Amino acid sequence: MNRATLQILVTYTILLTACLGPVEEYHDEHFGLLELRIEKRYELGFMGHTVFILKARNSGDKKWDEVTTFLADDPIDIPRDNLKLINPKTVMFFFNEKFVVSTDLGGTWSLWDTTKDIKPGRPYASWIKTVTVDENGSGVMTVECPSNTDPNTRLFNTVDSGKTWNFVKFQ
């Protein structure tokens, strides 16, 4: 990566962080000793995305730790139904291009991002449509990937609760 590209990325990151409006609303879920919060904010300025920030903490802690950030082009409601407890130790959340999972009640998180993990195609235009994972860790994900050459929907599977996903077929 050249210096100019790096400067642009750093500047954009700083501006994005500095240009978030206040928390508009939030949704909390409690899973035993783990508390999760999805905050909804808006970017201020030109882009104006809706920003969802997934945060986690152990019950009783005062400080929230940021897990990841999700963007939406339009002002929409918090995607509460995408936050799911898979089994007593495993929790997942997905929205647009990202899927996150913790198999140790928030101790560590694994991120799967269609913009980085799907090749070939146009990964920047991909989004997760559905995810199902059973209590044993087997699951299926459908991802919409608009493309001029391939079918739009791709099917992936997991056997480790979503820490990794493997391409199965086009649908």
Describe the structure concisely for a colleague.
This protein is mainly beta and 171 residues long.
Describe this structure in words.
The chain is mostly beta strands and 171 residues long. The protein has one domain. It has two helices and twelve strands; from the N terminus they run αββββββββαββββ. It has a four-stranded antiparallel sheet, with no helix packed on it. Strands 5-6-7-8 form a four-stranded antiparallel sheet. The radius of gyration is 17 Å and the shape is globular. The mean pLDDT is 88.
Counted beta strands: 12
Rounded Rg: 17 Å
The biggest beta sheet, please? 4 strands, antiparallel
* Oligomer description: single chain
Structural class: mainly beta
- What is the end-to-end distance? 36 Å
Domain tally: 1
Report the mean per-residue pLDDT as an integer: 88
Could you say which overall geometry the principal axes of the C-alpha atoms support? globular
Work out the helicity level.
Answer: 10-25%
**Biggest sheet: strands side by side, in what order?**
1-2-3-4
Low-confidence stretches: none
Order of helices and strands: HEEEEEEEEHEEEE
How much of the sequence is in beta strands? over 45%
Number of helices: 2
